[in-house]
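dumping this here so i dont lose it
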């Protein structure tokens, strides 16, 4: 059983490592990490069965770390260790399906019993895996979905690879199906049952026609992996759309990716299918939408257009409104009279689909961020001039850029506040930028740049000001000698300390005490 230990306190981490290693169980500590970020990096290289993690850590708490682990490695067992006997922590631990919760100081017998139970549980799971049938289990379906949803289509579980192999030999594709208007047409208390009825209708037809493997992806989306020949699958999907339309008050829209014979291609086919079904805001719902970049007769974005869209995405992320406007003008600086209007609408579809797909790789969703509703395409197609179209796109992309910038600033502000707290807590040590950067798992150059960008000050100036403020506090205690205060805040040379204090405050420490009658 491979165990990963996570704690921001080095002493606690070493204590835990020794206790686990001395348990005499068949376990191996494959790594230790002092932050959630470092632990996630380690998990990219090591197979981990069990994680023992402190619940309170800076920047990424144990609970946030656990949620990220659940997304990437849903089968890993997580045990939280906390110095707080707080029901709130235990409740949150239950929400991320923690396997256990231990209080510091951890009793050796409790720790060994927990490890023994987890070892037995993992043994039972492995036995079940060995007898698993060819059909995908619910856990395997979840793993397949996780792989599809990963940004880079990296490592895939061996039994998932074996399952997909027969599909890929003949050529396979991915179709994404979404229930239309579920949230605004159906009352909240009835949505689950309405979605379930459509799920049964779809699943029945998929099974009856042997179309492939159907997966549930969220409350209103389904994923179909199929190796049915393209012409037949297209006809069957059109029939499926019609069956839902006639058998339900709701409809479905289906996006279809390209056919492929490789795992990498199948992952890309999933991305294409998702992007295609998301484009229904512009193309209309209750229909089959092919991947925009692959559809003939539509050519893909030209190389020059592709470069402009890439620059526009960079400008959106950097909150550069002038550059966004320049890119839009460059993309739409063409003759749109007469029959060329349809070409412009086609270009809009391909631009937004590419932006959406690129943003998805960064964990963002273009359509959700802007809350584009089904009435938007009607409004867009009613525009009579290119100026109207540009004005609408400019307003929406500016809004998107502002949202992403605000989100980035909130994340940066949280980091700066954590830096303030860390420095204040360690002022009586020789704290440096290098030490602070290492604590937060950044390089000194990057952290210094982020700090200067957010506060407008160099980190060294901030640190010196904080240190001098602390000196002033300590000088108010008449029992403390000046050289003792200097040593407490990290100065070894009393002359240098006096010079620094006078430069910052405008007087020597002795003059400061006289002025304040200390």
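and the seq i came up w/
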């Amino acid at each position: 059983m491979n165990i990963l230990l996570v704690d921001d306190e080095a002493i606690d981490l070493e204590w835990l490592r020794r206790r686990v290693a001395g348990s005499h169980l068949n376990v191996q500590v494959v790594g230790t990490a002092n932050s959630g970020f470092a632990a996630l990096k380690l998990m990219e290289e090591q197979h981990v069965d069990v994680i023992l993690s402190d619940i309170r850590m800076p920047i990424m708490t144990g609970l946030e770390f656990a949620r990220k682990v659940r997304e990437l490695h849903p089968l890993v067992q997580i045990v939280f260790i906390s110095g707080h006997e707080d029901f709130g922590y235990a409740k949150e631990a239950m929400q991320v399906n923690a396997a256990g919760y231990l209080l510091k100081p951890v009793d050796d017998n409790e720790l060994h019993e927990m490890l023994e139970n987890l070892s037995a549980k993992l043994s039972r799971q492995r036995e079940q895996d060995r007898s698993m049938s060819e059909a995908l289990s619910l856990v395997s379906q979840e793993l397949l979905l996780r792989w599809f949803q990963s940004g880079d289509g990296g490592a895939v579980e061996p039994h998932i690879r074996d399952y997909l192999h027969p599909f890929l030999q003949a050529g396979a594709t991915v179709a994404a199906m979404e229930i239309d208007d579920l949230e605004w047409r159906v009352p909240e208390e009835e949505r689950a049952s309405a979605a379930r009825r459509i799920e049964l209708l779809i699943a029945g037809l998929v099974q009856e026609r042997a179309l492939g493997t159907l997966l549930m992806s969220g409350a209103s989306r389904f994923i179909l992996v199929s190796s049915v020949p393209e012409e037949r699958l297209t006809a069957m999907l059109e029939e499926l759309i019609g069956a839902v339309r006639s058998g339900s008050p709701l409809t479905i829209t289906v996006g279809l990716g390209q056919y492929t014979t490789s795992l990498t291609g199948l992952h890309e086919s999933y991305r294409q299918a998702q992007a295609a079904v998301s484009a229904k805001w512009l193309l209309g719902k209750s229909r089959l939408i092919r991947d925009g970049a692959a559809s003939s007769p539509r050519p893909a974005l030209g190389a020059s257009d592709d470069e402009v869209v890439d620059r526009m995405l960079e400008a959106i992320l950097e909150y550069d409104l002038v550059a966004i406007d320049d890119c839009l003008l460059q993309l739409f600086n063409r003759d749109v009279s007469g029959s060329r209007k349809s070409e412009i609408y086609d270009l809009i579809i391909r631009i937004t689909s590419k932006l959406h797909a690129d943003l998805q790789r960064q964990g963002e969703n273009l359509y959700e961020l802007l809350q584009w509703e089904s009435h938007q395409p009607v409004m867009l197609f009613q525009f009579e001039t290119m100026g109207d179209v540009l004005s609408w796109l400019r307003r929406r992309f500016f809004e998107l850029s502002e949202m992403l910038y605000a989100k980035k600033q909130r994340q940066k502000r949280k980091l700066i506040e954590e830096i303030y707290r860390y420095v204040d807590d360690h002022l009586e040590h020789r704290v440096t930028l290098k030490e602070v950067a290492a604590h937060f798992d950044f390089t000194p150059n990057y952290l210094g740049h982020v700090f200067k960008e957010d506060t407008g000050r160099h980190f060294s100036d901030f640190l010196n000001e904080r240190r001098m403020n602390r000196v002033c506090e300590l000088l108010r205690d008449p029992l403390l000698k000046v050289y003792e205060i200097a040593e407490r805040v990290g100065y070894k040379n009393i002359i240098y300390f006096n010079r620094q204090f006078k430069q910052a405050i405008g007087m020597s420490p002795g003059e400061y005490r006289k002025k304040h009658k200390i």
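Confidence is low (pLDDT under 50) at residues 128-135, 292-300, 335-339.
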